[in-house]
Design a protein that fits this description.
Shape: globular
Radius of gyration: 20 Å
Distance between the termini: 39 Å
Strand content: 15-25%
Number of helices: 6
Order of helices and strands: EHEEEEEEHEEHEEHHEHEEEEE
Strand order of the largest sheet: 5-7-8-13
Largest sheet: 4 strands, mixed
Length: 439
Amino acid sequence: MQLHSSTTSKLCSQQAGDIRPKPSLALPAQAPARNSPGLPTVSFDNSLPAVRRRILALLNHQWRGLRMRSGHRVRSGAQGLVVTFICVTAVHYSSPLTQGAGSHGSVGVVFGPTVPNTQHAPARAPKGMVWIPGGEFSMGAQDPPQMDMVGMKATTDSRPIHRVYVDGFFMDKTDVTNAQFAEFVKATGYVTIAEKTPAAEDFPGAPRENLYAGGVVFSPPNHAVDLNNHYQWWSYVKGANWRHPTGPKSSIKGKESYPVVQVAFPDAEAYAKWAHKRLPTEAEWEFAARGGLAGKPFVWGEKFKPNGKFMANTYQGHFPDEDAGTDGFVGLAPVAQYGPNGYGLYDMAGNVWQWTTDWYRPDYYYQLAQAGGVARNPKGPDAPFDPAEPNEKKKVHRGGSFLCTDQYCSRYMVGTRGKGEITTGTNHLGFRCVSDPSK
């Protein structure tokens, strides 16, 4: 779900309207990526890097020399471009990097207690934020309650469980909303990556008519499809951006309280800087999401639906063709429609993925565990590396989205990780900010 520098493609969305993939020409599938020693082989990805570059190269008949990243297919049709991607990351380890993570279950996944700092907030929380005390906790993903294959695959790059300490900080109660982002854009004139037309010099030889801004939009088929053929439910839509999340006919009018989507990492950073805040590290995000709990699979506790009650906006019905909306929403929901966690934070699971500042490496937790002791305020690896796409710069996503389901992607489980190329926003990806207490 990615693109490159100031020319980015988006991924996923809420309701897709009448958009449907068109008959098209497809690139051949990529051969499996070669692994570095001790790194996992990633067979599925929830990212879409450098998509527009590859689309334009394909349309210009220059694709033969390009490496097609795993998990992507690019198609051309009479009505425009269709780009598809995989929404699940299934990681099969070639060496025992994880503590008990495997394809059929795990053994000995042990969480220690969460030990929050005891000092009170050093100051009154800024408007719309809450104090997160920080402290020591066990970081990583618990087994899914049913030990199902989809849930187990979601945990594989979230092991071994390891001890981490983070200092206290303030965090936004909710994801940044359309209204808040609009205020930022009005004050600064900022233009997001999704709104920028690709520069001709970045795509030498590409037909000028193909150089347009756009995004990838969730386009559910009207019938059941094989979930191994994930190319059937995504469309590339001209004009999709934060103002028009599913294309030019869509609008955020009347949706001011919805989370802003179609924002790339630099867009989120720019907003945070304007608001005198910053984006959270992955460790800060997980400590906050757990809300003081230890070793639970969900931010609210042990069961997905305690007492039969939905606790987050996820996908019900048959994926991807029938979103039943049993949780109250089909597609994206306004912020704060479900109860907060123990720290007063809303939507730390489901609805939209959230950016963090950590570079993505599937073996990073292994590195921390090997170092021993307690990692203090970790900020992620020094450089990114995804074995499936080693040339792409990816940050960690957290929280899952309204498209997560135990049929295909169950990363609404706390501790599980997503990833995304930094210049690509998506229709199911947003962010929230943190700030440090005054010294």
